[in-house]
Amino acid sequence: MSDAVKVGFVPLSTAPRGVLVVFCDDELKLGSASRKTLGQAAELVKRAAAASAFKGKNGSAIDILEPEGIKIQRLLVIGTGKPSDLKEKDFLKLGGVIAGKLNAASTDVTVMAEHSGGPMKPGQAAGIATGIRLRAYKFDRYKTKKKDENAQLRANVSIATNDAGKSSRAFSPSAYVVDGVEIARDLVNEPPNVLFPEEFARRASALRKLGVEVEVLDVKAMSKLGMGALLGVAQGSARPGRTVIMRWNGGKKGNAPVAFIGKGVCFDTGGISIKGAASMEDMKGDMGGAACVVGLMHALAARKARVNAVGAIGLVENMPDGNAQRPGDIVTSMSGQTIEIINTDAEGRLVLADVLWHVAKKFKPKFMVDLATLTGAIMVALGTEHAGLFSNNDELAERLIRCGIETGEKVWRMPLAAEYDKLIDSQFADMKNTGGRYGGSITAAQFLQRFVDDTPWAHLDIAGTAMGAPKTEINQSWGSGYGVRLLDRLVADHYEK
Predict the structure, then answer these.
(1) Annotation marks residue 275 as catalytic
(2) Per the residue annotation, which of 93, 263, 349, 432 is the catalytic one?
(3) Rounded Cα gap, residues 336 and 314, in angstroms
(4) Selected catalytic residue, list 17, 275, 306, 413
(5) Distance (Å, whole) CA 292 – CA 313
(6) Is 349 one of the annotated active-site residues of the chain?
(7) Closest to 196 (Cα-Cα) out of 282, 267, 274
(8) Which residues contact 231 (CB under 8 A, 6 or more apart)?
(9) What's the confidence (pLDDT) of residue 104?
(10) Which residues contact 41 (CB under 8 A, 6 or more apart)?
């Protein structure tokens, strides 16, 4: 977690220092407090707008250096468009736009949290603060020579609001969620020689400091449980696999937990069914689902969520040494079901199968949501704007869709049907681990469904959204931390009392 950008809340009347940020609408109107703070400098906004064809469009900006009539270094004017059109997620975006305009010299920043319609509500001011922090994230720990223009932003940001106390309280839980997103981004961005299964498990164990119960299952423990599907993937690597179970008990004792399961393939060569060399380096991010679960559990524990939650991650490397599993091998999963290995590069579903079964049987959760960078097929279907959603429960699916719209971490529901299920039946075992070229993301979900029994369940295929997705106003990182905000919202809106 980075503390490079510190965000606080102050009254609207606070005198600005360093960089001043104000908002204007599509008619170039400023809020009353902003006009008062600017004084004669308010006229500069209209002149600068005319010179740069600035129309106040949502997310647009003009930058005025050393403005006359006010003792500040820079004046940033951010467009909001029509105030009546502003949505909750727009304030997050506007915060990201602000952070994107700042630089290493922006040590003190004051943001006037009002638009032409009046002061922003506490939740809207908190959205601005959240967007600033999300955009300010940078992963450069391995750069020994850092150029000034790419330097980490380090700033004290004061959000000037109509009610600093309420705004601060509104931001408090969001700040912990941002910490969780940063943890997930860090994990995905780390190189695979640094972040292997044992190290990943060690980092997840740091959640104990927040009161999370953490259990790490080594190879001996997983063998005793019968996790033959997961161990089959791990056996080709010199780095042994791990399963990590994290429990946050913030709800009433005895209440069934909510559960989140993440695929944690710390590096994926494809195994014996080896991938092509092009872009194989990206396969360090094949643990984006596990990264999300760790970040989410941090967020829930840090903000003391009133819920019982289980986070479980299966951690392996998929490597092609002389002990690696082969196409044609048959493994026995923890459920007792047997699996014929058709393609060793369809490994994530094998890891998830055992972890899903373990969580379903041991913890009997209200629901399970698994996240996995599972298939390239989902990117063919949905690109990089939506994660694929598969579910056996309409209520859970609808809640995820709604939370995705509200957070901007969007999901799109895909089908599950018996006709697809037939494609993974095997002539030698209970099932095979691939169903052929067509409907690849669907047959992968059908495979996972065989390991959840009657537990309400959703599978999120995040191959297109967890790593290398297009940059946005609130994320400029290769590892996006996708899913932390989505699932925290799901818990907050529907499962906390």
Answers:
(1) yes
(2) 349
(3) 18
(4) 275
(5) 10
(6) yes
(7) 267
(8) 219, 222, 223, 241
(9) 76
(10) 67, 68, 69, 70, 75
